[in-house]
Amino acid sequence: MKTLDRIPTSKIERASKFISTGAKIGVNYLKYYGDKMTKTEDEAKDNLNKNNATDIYDSLKELKGSALKVAQMLSMEKNILPAAYVEKFSLSQFQVPPLSAPLVNKIFKNNFGQKPTDLFDEFNAESTNAASIGQVHKAWKDGKELAIKIQYPGVSQSISSDLAMIKPIAMKMFNIKGKNSDQYFKEVEDKLLEETNYELEINQSLEIRKSCENIPNLKFPNYYKEYSNNRIITMDWMHGKHLSTFCDENTDQEIAEKVGQTLWDFYMYQIHKLRKVHADPHPGNFLVSAEADLIAIDFGCMKAIPEDFYIPYFELAVRENLDNKEFFDKKLLELEIIRLDDSEEEKEFFTQIFYELLYLFTVPFQNETFDFEDPEFFEAIADLGQKYAKNTTIKGRNANRGSRHFIYMNRTFFGLYSLMHSIKSRNIHINNYKNFM
């Protein structure tokens, strides 16, 4: 794969890249209007989506950083984006151009005053994995296999300006109006900034490892602070298949259920015991060992869950509470889904929407066990997503509803559901995590 000798870091360079990509999209629309004369509407729209997705991704993979991270986040939203975008943006989890060896050497010299070959007994200059925020190299020291995660230059400095350029697109895509919208973008910006703080990530990793070491079949790497800093993390090299590869190749249902149960227990324990959660549930953050142990390898994105959000959020997972209109209405106010200045029509409209969403969202919590492979459950999620995506009444209203904490909590749960489905997790014991509290 082509390597990069530099990454655009200035506001002008990055803005120019966005502008040139916009010009390509304009050309794609001209092609689309031409295609409509010779092809069906569906064929023409499919070509447009594929061309736009390719051009946008090709631009983002060179910019890296928060721009590419947002694409990665969107790749998990299978019910929002057209399939062409999901397919292309999913590559941001594994397949982006890595930094060249000279640039890697320069980063080490800037951070340690030495080249990596001076710090380690051996260092593989070829990246084993490159993603949105950084890339991973393999090294050896004193007989230990190590994974070295290197952050791309300029990532943290460009987050605010990148998000400012992406904001108009995101607001249109998710129907967010100007009023009160800043709190949502501030939440995303804060989390992205945290992901670029590698010292924070090491501390979070050590904390989660210590807190969750009692969960069976769950493994974590060791971290080496003497070879780490705010831009480089050194940890054990963990042997295993990426979770997506495991899902594609595994045919043993017993192993699938073991891995699925471990993943579910890990998330429920974090949420209910620690009141914080690994809020980036995509397959690139997990490995599966030869012994079918789940290995968690990235803790850059952790979401703290405040008590005044946690309580009403999970009270509505109880079906009796959801069906108690007085109680339900009270919780919608607490969660900022319904506002005091809403008209009666608005209250009724959004109450109905969130009842349907929460009713479906909480289905796995209604019994002691749940089958996440159930196609009907995921078809229902897709159908509901399409229903509201096409709802013209919503498009005429201010749809930025709910506490800012919903952004990462909902992302966590829908990402988790998607992973559980991909693993083919059946017979998952929903409250098994309580055995480890």
State the low-pLDDT regions, or none: none
> Count of DSSP helices?
18
Tell me, briefly, the overall form.
globular
Assembly state (oligomeric): single chain
Strand content: 5-15%
Provide mean pLDDT, rounded.
83
Q: Could you give the count of β-strands?
A: 13
Report the structural category: alpha+beta
Distance between the termini: 46 Å
What's the Cα radius of gyration?
A: 23 Å
The major sheet is characterized as: 5 strands, antiparallel
In words, what does this structure look like?
The protein has helices spanning 11-38, 41-63, 65-75, 83-89, 101-112, 116-119, 155-173, 182-195, 198-212, 243-249, 253-274, 307-315, 319-322, 325-334, 344-361, 375-389, 392-395, 406-423, and strands at 122-123, 129-130, 134-141, 144-151, 218-219, 232-236, 241-242, 276-278, 286-288, 294-296, 302-304, 369-370, 428-429. It has 437 residues and is α+β, with helices and mostly antiparallel strands. Strands 1, 2, 3, 4 and 6 form a 5-stranded antiparallel β-sheet that branches. The chain is globular, with a radius of gyration of 23 Å.
